[in-house]
Model the fold of this input.
Amino acid sequence: MRKHIKAIALVLAAITVCSFTLVGCKSKNKDSSSNTDSTGNNEVVVGEGYFVENSQTDYVIVIPQNDSGKYMTAASELAYFWNLASDVNIQTVTDLELDYTDTANYISLGNTSVFEGSSMKIDVSDMKKSDYVIKSKGESVFILDNGTNSSRGVLYGVYKFLEETIGYKVYAEDEYVYEQSDDIEYMQFDLKQKMSVEARNVAFYTVMSDSLYNSRLGMVYEADEWIIFGHSQMIHLIRYDSYGASHPEWFTPDGKSLCLSNREMLDEMIIKVIHYINASDRNRIMIGQPDHWDYCTCENCTALMNEYGGYSGISLWMVNEIANAVDAYLAVNAPDREPVYYYIFAYQQSEAPPAKRNEQGEWAVYKDGFVPNEHVGIVYAPIGVDFSVGLTDKLNTNAYDALKGWATVLGYKNLSVWSYCTNFSNYLFSYNNFASLQDTYRVYTDFGCDYVFDQGPTETGYASFEALRIYLQSRLLMDVEQNVEDIVVDFMQNYYKEAWNEIYEYYTLVNTWYQFCKDTMGMRGTIYFGIGDRQYWPKELVDELSEILARAMNKIEPLQNEDPAMYNKLYDRIMHESLSTIYMKMTFYKEYYSTSEINKMIDDFGYYCGKFNIFCTREGAMDIDSLVASWRE
Done:
């Protein structure tokens, strides 16, 4: 008991020094603009006049006549938020028969005839599909992407345009900010933004179930990016229940894995891949291995593994054969289609790269002379990483080295990552990765990763700092060099408002305590480590966390009369953060509480788990209802 009290006192002392002197304890990150390329001066300046004056505007939004829908989506977002901010109704028109003049009032989205008529020359050759340019000429503003069918740059450019013109920012699905005024000042733009990661997916249930929230955070759905995605796709393409009876030689004896060396099976898979590609306008397809450790070890498969470098080597050989065949088919049958990229899952037995050390000790492709197809890539899943520290930490040397090996094999291109950002055994506890997120994402960026799928709890809401995690991770994946502390504090102030200092104190205590447990008790940040064990959560700590949340409630009390709607919103948000402490009290220390206190905790826990769609205490369990029922017995 005394040991715990002393430890908590030391942690609280550290928080007193750090958490309330916000500037002094910020991480030493680069300036947030460091990842921004420029068309010129890279600036936004207030010009003369107004976009909107007295809730009226002469401006129109212009989209290409042949728009497939993506530019209309961007136009709708611009019009919607300008209307909220200034009560203006701005019209959207196509570029049919429109010409550029210096005095025309256009907000042009994409490669319109208006842009062509402006005679501006903007190099988009180095832009990927999330990048954008915002450029002013005359009285008009042009928002451009890289011109490919799959690009999303104009939508993200519109959100940046809204940020500059009305102070727009999205913090959560129910928390947007913008400045309300009848006037919107005219601004001159000269911006070119290149994202740290081309395509980003922070995979939490809450954001995955809300497509608009997802887009406004600058993220993509799997279905918007991939033709097929995930593990086990190869055995979905060639199903045992469809082919097992007629072609048992295509499978291992138990039917759970494919014989990758079987030519007939591979030819059938190529046909299936072509079918899926023809049915989709996406340009990535993942031919993922089964989610288990078994694979074919027949004579031919073993020979190929020996030749190409293990199971990852034969997997790479297989997808390379598919890519060569499908590329040849598309060159004849769909010559105008964007290139398709073919990925394997570097996961479990294929996580290690098919590479070897050369005389200098550097990675080299395992099979001399083998050069993968330029459209072949991997989705690397570092499932054994300790995410409480960065990938450059010595605890994660193997994962970092493996990613470097894969980058070498693929020529530092077509690298994607399936990362992890939760503890899958303990959904009711905060995951100890806030301090390491930036380092982890920076490594992905340094290796040129073009897609990051960071998996949180995808089947349930999350009990601890869910909205903060989604916001912070989405921001860092767009620009990894932003100051993390600035993002966190800005979020706290806008999301928890009057209670932000207390919630920040709570956040700091949890993270500082995790560091103490890591340093003194061997706690790890792997994705199944027992962070929910009682030994890590002494009653004195739980009491201190509860007291901080009680003070947060006291801070919002005046709003009960002044602004009841805001009071209820903030009350619910604080209760969301209280779910962890309620769970710990009921699980570890129930005997300390009266019957009335217990009943209130059960009622609160059940109600707020329902309100925030929290169904599970751990991966796949769907056990919240049964947990609440057991507490009532």
User: Anything to note?
Assistant: Residues 19-39 have pLDDT under 50 and may be disordered.
